[in-house]
Amino acid sequence: xxxLVLLLLVCFAPNVLGQSSEIDNFFQKDGISFWYPKDWYIxxxxxxxxxxxxxxxxxxxxxxxxxxxxxxWINVDFELIEWMDIYTNxxxxxxxxxxxxxxxxxxxxxxxxxxxCKTLKFNFELDNEKYTxxxxxxxxxxxxxxxxxQSSISEEEINKLxxxxxxxxxxxxQ
Length: 174
Fold this sequence. Notes:
Layout: H1 2-16, E1 24-29, E2 32-37, E3 40-48, E4 53-60, E5 68-74, H2 80-92, H3 95-99, E6 103-104, E7 108-112, E8 115-126, E9 129-140, E10 143-152, H4 156-169, E11 171-172
């Protein structure tokens, strides 16, 4: 009987939860989990054991696709403004962003998946294509988290569905 219940859960739980394993992919590590669309993939995963720092980058498939979500976290309640400063300094000092002359807006208050957070919008231009992005920073379950979303302006609507899938399904546990 237990085996039958387990098999039914495995087969039907994704559909009951509004997710379909045939349509979406699932990521889970260190208390962070989310669903992402089938036409997106994990392009990079990083872990620094000394700092207990994790990051995962998800991109929309296709050589011309521009959708990127990067989720980074450290397993400590780090001072949020300092965390955002470190993150943006690392970002803006990468050759790609230096060459594209990234422009940062002021730090603001916002929401990500119903979490109060700090937000920092940015934009840049590369090969005559304009891009826009947002960095979100917040703390939950003894984690300090930053999430970067980035898209070309011409693909904002296309990438919006992937961004929303990840945001709306994000779960953070200890």
